[in-house]
Each structure stands twice: as structure tokens, then as C-alpha cells.
Amino acid sequence: MNKPIEPNSFRTGPDEQGMFGIFGGRFVAETLMPLILDLEKHWNEAKTDPAFQAELQALSTHYAGRPSKLYFAENLTRHLGGAKIYFKREDLNHTGSHKINNCLGQILLAKRMGKTRIIAETGAGQHGVASATVSARFNFPCVVYMGATDVERQKPNVFRMKLLGAEVNAVNSGHGTLKDAMNEALRDWVTNVENTYYLIGTAAGPHPYPELVREFQSVIGKEAREQIVEQEGRLPDVIIAAVGGGSNAIGIFHPFLDDKNVEIIGVEAGGRGLDGIEHCASMNAGRPGVLHGNRTYLLQNDDGQILDGHSISAGLDYPGVGPEHSWLRDTGRVKYVPILDDEALEAFKLTTKLEGIIPALESAHAIAQAVKTAPTMGKDQIMIVNLSGRGDKDVHTVAKMMDMEI
Amino acid sequence: MSQSEAGMSGMKSTRIDALFARLRQENRPALVTYFMGGDPDYETSLSVMKALPEAGSDIIELGMPFSDPMADGAAIQAAGLRSLKGGQTLAKTLKMAEEFRRGNDTTPIVMMGYYNPIYIYGVDRFLADARAAGIDGFIVVDLPPEMDEELCIPALKAGLSFIRLATPTTDDKRLPKVLENTSGFVYYVSMTGITGSALADTTKVSEAVNRIKRHTDLPVCVGFGVKTAAQAKAIGASADGVVVGTAIVNAVANVLGSDGKTTADPAEAVATLVRGLAQGVREARLAPAE
Ligand SMILES: Cc1ncc(COP(=O)(O)O)c(C=O)c1O
């Protein structure tokens, strides 16, 4: 793969065709195409409409609880003996993760487009919960597609969605994880295209989704930038975030992409190791292909059949990644590294004990990378880790890994 | 000038064009049959393919299995998985067409599926191999006109047809864009939905067919939801072709035991169904339209 020429700015994509270099695009069935063009039109109007922005801002503040805190993890810092570690506390948001940022933005778009029904896919259930939440708040019926495996390992979230009035449909095809949920959501959308808004949960899918999800999530990075300057008087040396589809990561990365001195690291799910197929490290072990509306790095075989992958973390258990990350990988601006299931689990336990914060298993992947990187840095250096969500939903999985009953 | 002429300028008449010219004289619609290449294994599937024209199929849609067929219902999803489990690959699907061509040089073969396996195979290599195998055209579900540079334009340059899907959501404003680089025929998807769903209101379908015909000289074939001879007859009254897929895939599935072994001859099961459908399209224009 040739490295694309380095652009003047890393923050101008996508182009009008929805491409980030060779990645992105609109690879969808014709039935969906008119709707996607309509979404793009409404999105282009909304992003410059002060009324839309004001409504989103008010909801972010009073409903979701933004800005989220930037917390100095003093004990973890001391324990690792290197760079100062800050957590961007997306776990403190309403519904417990960064997913609410995107859902609030998109539900306002759905309203603007006059849609009357919401569908969503979910892996960890955090996006499903956030979708069910905004659907309750704005009085939309909501159908969530969730792989059968994930329904099993994220039970608390399934119940939360149902309490919020959503219908949760377990998907049995494939391994019953996020990829399969997304296929089924797309099938629903194609069938109910007239009245239905597809609230995609990550910075992937056909254009304009990767762009609009990024914009709704960029609030994370914008706040973090202000907060670190306020607390430390300067920008961080390193930023780390976990990458599933890539929404929390692109949200915190994007405002820093043109700050050349800020090193940016995305963490993929290394599962049980990159040698076999039991991981979800599409950018480390996959190659470019086309799935779910966009071209991006995918785990696939030589015949172009998509592999299922594996991760302990349902939110990272996806064989693809948002197209902007693929482009950032190829340009070299962001480094993507794998973290194994076991390493994430250790980081989960460490953070819980040292900081009194139970992180989501997804976020624990980012912390595990911090555990590796921080000790190699000086004590006067600064690192921000995106704590994308809280770990309450994962206690069953962790108990099982620890051979404990709850 | 029709789009097919534009795309095929300098080419001799294609198998697809020749077929529709003949059917116009016979005043009947084409029967277009979809089956899944490699379901449940290569040899069985090849026997199904060979049975299709003999039973009355005019055009063969050769399904290319994909792990994530997001526009397909349960039946075609399952068929694709059976095929992949049986070891099918895109290379083998091409080989199947080539073997079929040795005994049949007239029935058009259109490969239908999703883009990723083609992208991974390599577009140029794929087009060259498809041509050599005697393929006539492609239907690729996840390549709308906005993505024409990927495969559509190269296919037209290689002298192969790119058959586009038009749907109920493709309005008059968008139709010209959808038809622009289409060649061979237009595939009208009878409903907003996935394969295997119930048939839409036939009156609405014929209105849509007439609407598309106002924009193009190309034949318009209708698919999604057609399962019986009676439905083929009803749709065929206005459409230039009727596409049947799920019913054929089900005919194969129905003769597979729980262990995946055949309990009866799939080729014969499919042939029986297709003979009935062929009868349907032959009656489509006999009775005056109701
Ligand atoms: C807490 C948390 N972090 C991260 C992710 C991964 O998604 P993304 O990469 O889009 O941020 C999820 C997905 O469910 C999640 O729940």
C-alpha cells in the first residue's frame, strides 16, 4: 500500500463524494441512495443552522451533562511512574458513555427530516441504550438490532433498552455480534425507508454518516483541548482512545489532528492475539474492502468474505472501522495498535482498584495502552486517555473471566 | 440512442440484446432465474444451472455468495452461507459459468452479488476472467450510480453489461442518473425491501414499469417477491422480464436434509418449478389485460 501524500491539513475530509482518500464513499443499495442524499442535504443545512446548534448545545448541557470532566488520574500516574495521565470522563455522561453525544445530534436530524421511527444497531448496548433514551425523550418508536451473543453478554443494557420502551431484536446470523446487527438494521432500513431514520452508532457507514457522527463526537476533543490548556497550560503529548467503529476515537482525535506535536494512538481489539482470527484489529491485520456502505480496512479472507473476529469487548467486536481512521492510518498521522483481551482485563481491574472508576471494557483497551506507554514517557509529559464509558454493563463478562458468580 | 448502444459502441450485438429482440417478436416477457452459485456445492449447483434453460429460463442470474448480503432475506442469506461452507469462491463461480458455456452459447448469464469479493479479486482481472468465461453482465447491489467509477465504467469499457437496479424510491428526477450507464436491461425492484418478501401490488408495479419505460428504450425486468407462475404471468403482462430468485433458492433448500445432503435431485426440483414459471410468462400477454 502506497502511503498517500501528506495533506496540508488532516481536518478537511471527507470530499464531496464522501471520500477520505480511497476510503469512505456510498456503497449502498439504490433503494437507500435517495434517502442518503436527503440526509446529506438536511445535515448540510443543520450544521450551519444556529437554531439546530443551540438546541443540541442545550440538550448536551442540561440533559447529557456536558462538558464531561477532564480528571487527573493521580494514583494510576504514580503507579506507572511516567507521564501524567488524564481521563476524559465520557463515562459520566447521561447513559454512561460517549454514545449519547451522537444520539442527541442524530435524533434532532431525524426530527428535522420528519421521520417517525428510529432503528439502531448496537454491540455493547451502549449505543442501543443511548438511542432508546433519545427516542423516549423525543417520543419516537425505537427498534434496536443486537447480535444474539451480545444480548447474552450485555444483559443489563438489554433490560435498560426495554425499560426505555425500545424493541430489542436479537440477531442470530454470523457470530451474533455487531456486524450481524448492522446487516439486519440495514435490511430493516431498506424495507421501511419512507418513515425510518437509521441512527448509526459509530463513525462508519455510507457518507454522510462518518462525517456527521464525527462532528457530533468532536465535542469530546474540543472540550479536552480547552480543559488541558486550562489545567496544564499546554497541549498533551499523547492522546489514546479505543477504536471499535471509531466514534469516540475520532471525536477526541479530530480537534488535535493538525497539532503535529501531539502523538495520537488508536487502540484496536487484539482479542486472543493477531496470529489467528480471534481479534478485531482490522487496521493491523486486515485490508481495504467494502462493507456496510463504505470502503475501509476489514478483516476478510482471500475471497473477500468478511470474518467475524473476536473481542472480549462487545463494543469493539467489529471486523471493520470508520473510513477516516483507515485514512489516518495510511497517512501515518495516527498510530493504531492492538491490545489483547487479557491486557484490557488487567487495565479494567487496575483502574477500578486505583482510581475507584470502573471503566467499560472498550475504554479499558485504551487504558491498557496507557499502561504500556506512560512509563516510557517523562514525568513532565502529559497523556489524555478517552474514558469512553463506564463498566457497569461489563461486570457479568468480567466475573465470568475471573471465574466468579454474581 | 439507447444506453446499451452507448456502452457497447463498436461491439457486436450481445446475447442479452439478441434475446430481447427475439422475445419482442414472440411477444412475451423473459423469465429471469436467479440461483446461488455453489449451493450446496459446486457440482450440484452446476447441474442446477444447466437445468435452467432446458426448463424454460431465458436469462440466468448467477448468484455470487457473500458473507454479508445486506439486501437479502433469510433464504438467500442461508443459500450463500451453504455455498461458502461448500467451498465456493468467486474464482469457482467464474469457472462454473465457463463450464456451463461449453454446452450453451446463447443463454445470457448475469452475475449478481455484492462488490467486496470483486474488489478483492481485482476489478481488471475479474472483468477479463468474466469475459473469458462467457459472462454477459453484472448486477452489483451495493454499487449505485454515485460509485460508477468502481466497476460500472470499467465493465462497459470491457464490453460487458452493467444492469442497474431501479427501485420505488428512484423518482423521476433521479431515474436519468440511474439509467445513464445502464446497459442490457433495467432491473426494477418491485418494493422497498429485501429479497424474499411478499409481492407488491401488481398494479403499482406496472405503473412503475411504464414510468421507467418513458425514460429508456431498454427492457425492464421486475424482481423481488415473484414466486409463482401466476405472479410471473401477472407481472409479465407489462414487464419485459420477470425475475424469480428466492423461490428457486428454496427449491434447492427443500431437497436438502438436516445434514446438508440432498434428499432428491435439486436440478429436477428447480426444473419443475421453472417449467411452471416458464408457462406463466408465456401466458402473460395472451389474455387481454384486466
Ligand atoms: C464505552 C464504549 N467505548 C467505545 C465503544 C466503541 O465504539 P466507537 O469506536 O464507535 O467509539 C463502545 C461501543 O459500543 C462503547 O460502548
UniProtKB/TrEMBL annotation, chain A:
<keyword id="KW-0822">Tryptophan biosynthesis</keyword>
<dbReference type="InterPro" id="IPR006653">
    <property type="entry name" value="Trp_synth_b_CS"/>
</dbReference>
<protein>
    <recommendedName>
        <fullName>Tryptophan synthase beta chain</fullName>
        <ecNumber>4.2.1.20</ecNumber>
    </recommendedName>
</protein>
<dbReference type="InterPro" id="IPR006654">
    <property type="entry name" value="Trp_synth_beta"/>
</dbReference>
<dbReference type="GO" id="GO:0005737">
    <property type="term" value="C:cytoplasm"/>
</dbReference>
<comment type="pathway">
    <text>Amino-acid biosynthesis; L-tryptophan biosynthesis; L-tryptophan from chorismate: step 5/5.</text>
</comment>
<feature type="domain" description="Tryptophan synthase beta chain-like PALP">
    <location>
        <begin position="65"/>
        <end position="388"/>
    </location>
</feature>
<feature type="modified residue" description="N6-(pyridoxal phosphate)lysine">
    <location>
        <position position="99"/>
    </location>
</feature>
<keyword id="KW-0028">Amino-acid biosynthesis</keyword>
<dbReference type="Pfam" id="PF00291">
    <property type="entry name" value="PALP"/>
</dbReference>
<comment type="function">
    <text>The beta subunit is responsible for the synthesis of L-tryptophan from indole and L-serine.</text>
</comment>
<dbReference type="GO" id="GO:0004834">
    <property type="term" value="F:tryptophan synthase activity"/>
</dbReference>
<comment type="subunit">
    <text>Tetramer of two alpha and two beta chains.</text>
</comment>
<dbReference type="InterPro" id="IPR036052">
    <property type="entry name" value="TrpB-like_PALP_sf"/>
</dbReference>
<keyword id="KW-0456">Lyase</keyword>
<comment type="similarity">
    <text>Belongs to the TrpB family.</text>
</comment>
<dbReference type="InterPro" id="IPR001926">
    <property type="entry name" value="TrpB-like_PALP"/>
</dbReference>
<keyword id="KW-0663">Pyridoxal phosphate</keyword>
<keyword id="KW-0057">Aromatic amino acid biosynthesis</keyword>
<dbReference type="InterPro" id="IPR023026">
    <property type="entry name" value="Trp_synth_beta/beta-like"/>
</dbReference>
UniProtKB/TrEMBL annotation, chain B:
<dbReference type="GO" id="GO:0004834">
    <property type="term" value="F:tryptophan synthase activity"/>
</dbReference>
<feature type="active site" description="Proton acceptor">
    <location>
        <position position="72"/>
    </location>
</feature>
<feature type="active site" description="Proton acceptor">
    <location>
        <position position="61"/>
    </location>
</feature>
<dbReference type="InterPro" id="IPR018204">
    <property type="entry name" value="Trp_synthase_alpha_AS"/>
</dbReference>
<keyword id="KW-0028">Amino-acid biosynthesis</keyword>
<dbReference type="Pfam" id="PF00290">
    <property type="entry name" value="Trp_syntA"/>
</dbReference>
<comment type="function">
    <text>The alpha subunit is responsible for the aldol cleavage of indoleglycerol phosphate to indole and glyceraldehyde 3-phosphate.</text>
</comment>
<keyword id="KW-0822">Tryptophan biosynthesis</keyword>
<protein>
    <recommendedName>
        <fullName>Tryptophan synthase alpha chain</fullName>
        <ecNumber>4.2.1.20</ecNumber>
    </recommendedName>
</protein>
<dbReference type="InterPro" id="IPR013785">
    <property type="entry name" value="Aldolase_TIM"/>
</dbReference>
<keyword id="KW-0057">Aromatic amino acid biosynthesis</keyword>
<comment type="similarity">
    <text>Belongs to the TrpA family.</text>
</comment>
<keyword id="KW-0456">Lyase</keyword>
<comment type="pathway">
    <text>Amino-acid biosynthesis; L-tryptophan biosynthesis; L-tryptophan from chorismate: step 5/5.</text>
</comment>
<comment type="subunit">
    <text>Tetramer of two alpha and two beta chains.</text>
</comment>
<dbReference type="InterPro" id="IPR011060">
    <property type="entry name" value="RibuloseP-bd_barrel"/>
</dbReference>
<dbReference type="InterPro" id="IPR002028">
    <property type="entry name" value="Trp_synthase_suA"/>
</dbReference>
<dbReference type="GO" id="GO:0005829">
    <property type="term" value="C:cytosol"/>
</dbReference>
